[in-house]
Amino acid sequence: MTAYLYTEDNLIEQPAIRLFAELGWATVSASEESFSPDGTLGRETKSEVVLIPKLRAALERTNPSLPSDAINSAINELARDCSAMSLAAASREI
User: Fold this and answer.
1) What is the distance between the alpha carbons of residues 67 and 8, in angstroms, rounded to a whole number?
2) Considering the domain boundaries, does residue 63 fall inside one?
3) Do 53 and 20 fall into the same domain?
4) Is the per-residue pLDDT at 3 higher than 70?
5) Is the pLDDT reported for residue 92 higher than 90?
6) Cα–Cα distance between 57 and 46 in angstroms, integer?
7) Average per-residue pLDDT in the chain?
8) Are residues 26 and 50 in the same domain?
9) Do 14 and 56 reside in the same domain of the chain?
10) Which domain holds residue 77?
11) Are 82 and 71 in contact (CB under 8 A)?
C-alpha cells in the first residue's frame, strides 16, 4: 500500500459516507458546492454550518402541531453561535 492511500478521505470520509448510505441516509459530495438558497446544500456561504432548510423541515416533520413561531425559536436557539464561549459555558447555555 502506498503512502497516498493513507489520507483522511480514504480512511475516514469515504468509509463514513458508505456507512451512512448503507443506513439509508442520503449523501452528497459538497467538495464543489454551489452557494445559494437553491445551491447544493441550501446555504449562502461555507461558514453556515447549520443547514437551516433541512433543520426546519425536520423540526416541522417531527413536531407537526408546533406553530411556526416555535419552530423559528428552536432554529434560532440551535443555530446560535457559541464559538466565542468556552465549551463548558456553551454547554451550560444550551
Assistant:
1) 42
2) yes
3) no
4) no
5) no
6) 21
7) 90
8) no
9) no
10) 46-94
11) no
CA 37 centroid distance within chain:
15
For 71-91, the pLDDT digits (tens) are: 999 999 999 888 888 989 888
Q: Are 86 and 74 in contact (CB under 8 A)?
A: no
Kindly state whether residue 72 falls inside one of the protein's structural domains: yes
Tens digits of residue pLDDT in 37-76 = 888 898 999 888 899 999 999 999 999 999 999 999 999 9
- State how many domains the chain has: 2
Whether residue 40 lies inside any domain: the answer is no
Report yes or no on whether pTM surpasses 0.85. no
Inter-CA distances, 16 with 3, 6, 11, 19, 25, Å: 21, 15, 9, 5, 11
Are 28 and 40 a contacting pair, CB within 8 Å?
A: yes
Indicate whether 38 belongs to any domain: no
